[in-house]
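Weekly modeling sync, notes
Attendees: S.R. (lead), two postdocs, one rotation student

Agenda item 3: backlog of single-chain predictions. S.R. asked that every request posted to the team notebook include the full sequence so nobody has to chase files. The rotation student volunteered to paste the first one in as an example of the format we agreed on. Action items at the bottom.

Example entry:
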Amino acid sequence: MADEREAACKGQAGRVVPVIDRNRCEAKAGCVEVCPFKVFEIRSLAPSDKAALSFVGRMKAWAHGHRQAYVIRPDDCQACQRCVKACPEDAIRLVPHRLAGGTTHST
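Predicted structure, as returned to the notebook:
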């Protein structure tokens, strides 16, 4: 089944990376389940991420065991947008991958 999902993602790896809105993520793991390239994992919030949350974000984090999705393999993202569609909180967006020197890939 993973091979079928990989075949459906026709983007070029490394052009975009997923970014997670920490104030929205509720660790429901839809992104982990649908990503054929294992770009995401659910884990405990890092102290710096927890400190940067808004009041509502802190309450959501507490309610969900201080766990959220993290992008662990950004260079493997092929822009299929399955993670974006699977996230019920609209917490994921794809942004251009920054290259050395601050430039981005052109589309």
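Discussion: group reviewed the output briefly. Helices lie at 2-8, 30-34, 47-51, 55-63, 82-86.
Action items: rotation student to repeat for the remaining queue; S.R. to check formatting next week.
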